[in-house]
Amino acid sequence: MTIQTNAGLSRLSNENHEQHETTREEEEHNILMQEEENTTTTNTKEEHWAPLHEDISELRIAEGVALEAKVYGDEDAPVQVVWGHGLGSSMTNEDKESLWNFWDVSERGDASSAGNGTATTTCDDDGSDGSASEEEEEVGLENLENLKDEKVRIVRYNARGHGYSSPAETSSQAKWENMAADMLKVANLKQQTRISKKTGKEKKQKLILGGASMGAAVVLHAAVQRGDVFPDGMVLVIPPTIYEQRKKREKNLKKKALEGPPPPPRLRKPRPIFDGEPEEVYVPRATVEFGMRDESYVAVSVGAAQSNLPPPEEISNVVAKVPCLLLAWDCGDKTHPVKSAEELKKLIPHCEMHVAKTLEDTEQW
Questions:
Q1: Tens digit of each residue's pLDDT (9 = 90 or more) over 48-107
Q2: Longest C-alpha distance within the chain, in Å?
């Protein structure tokens, strides 16, 4: 009887496993079919670029790939910051939320801008030599914390599939490691060579890579890729779910991919950090539209679902001497849990970490 029962349980277990695998395969197939359909639609559309503001530039990082970007500050500034936004966000959304708008030129007291007009700049796939000189001074944490007190050039851009940037045609293009390659191309494209006041020799601008949520993950991937461009400093803001805690997020993102783009009015769920704020604060800042392109929704969602950070030991080794500022919040945000920041702090023990619990706390960032 025991043998028969065990055999029956084994058979049921196998059947359940096979059924589970079949369901999973069907879901994956449906996602791939949806992605292929969106890619076909994208390819048949006439491509055009329509900037939202006159101070937005078009950065061509590869053949047929242009990213919408804004550039602030002087070209000859000693430090350049390249900034990436979060999943489903955009430059416009970040401006409206005003949670980490250190690029606000008026606040920085710098009226110059290198992003006026619709200038187009191109970059070869392999980029140019961006190796740093040993003569260059260290970039300390004070440079990361007090950017608006420094002479800094800031480059922001909308990632593929977001805003008016080129669409993400496949989920592979939307994986964090490949978005990191895009970030490095933007950095290489805009990083200037300047004359050192100390030595009189040419040297590259100091480079700080920064980003929020997905943008923070992209920064870490960019650092470990060790391409022609390597960051002299990093700013990681509200890191997303990572490693083991990423599994639930992966499931949710794939589910969203199957459902397709949200219907109008396409508003994003307000961030928990705005909870409890008065209406005059909550309504204008927390109410933002979805920043992802409809035709890229499936590809970007699946790409994000398939993404995670590089291996922990790789991060620890590569950024061991890279100054880092880590800004997180602890406000019930399950998509950006403080646990992610705590894990990164263990991997990058020298990083300076600040945790906000209220909207007022974020003003100290």
A1: 333 334 467 889 999 999 999 999 988 888 899 999 999 999 999 999 999 998 887 434
A2: 89
Which residues have a Cβ under 8 Å from the Cβ of 125 and sit 6 or more positions away? Answer: 62, 63
> Tokens 């030599």, residue?
129
**β-pair type (233-237, 206-212):** parallel
The model's pTM is 0.77
Q: Tokens for 78? A: 């000693």
Task: State how far the Cα of 110 lies from the Cα of 365, in Å rounded to an integer.
Answer: 20
Spatial neighbors of 285 by CB under 8 A, at least 6 apart, are 96, 97, 98, 274
Residue 62: strand pairing partners: 65
Q: Are 238 and 213 in contact (CB under 8 A)?
A: yes
For the stretch 16-54, pLDDT in tens is: 445 545 555 555 555 555 555 554 444 433 333 333 344
